[in-house]
Amino acid sequence: MSPKKVTKRKAIKKKKPLKKKPTLKRKPALKKKPASRKKAAPKKKLTLKKKPALKKSKENVIGIITHYFPHVRAAVIKLKAPLSVGDTVKIKGHTTDFIQNVISMQIDRTPLTKAKKGDEIGLLVDSRVRQHDTVSKV
Question: What is the sign of the dihedral through the CA atoms of 57, 74, 120 and 113?
Answer without folding.
Answer: positive
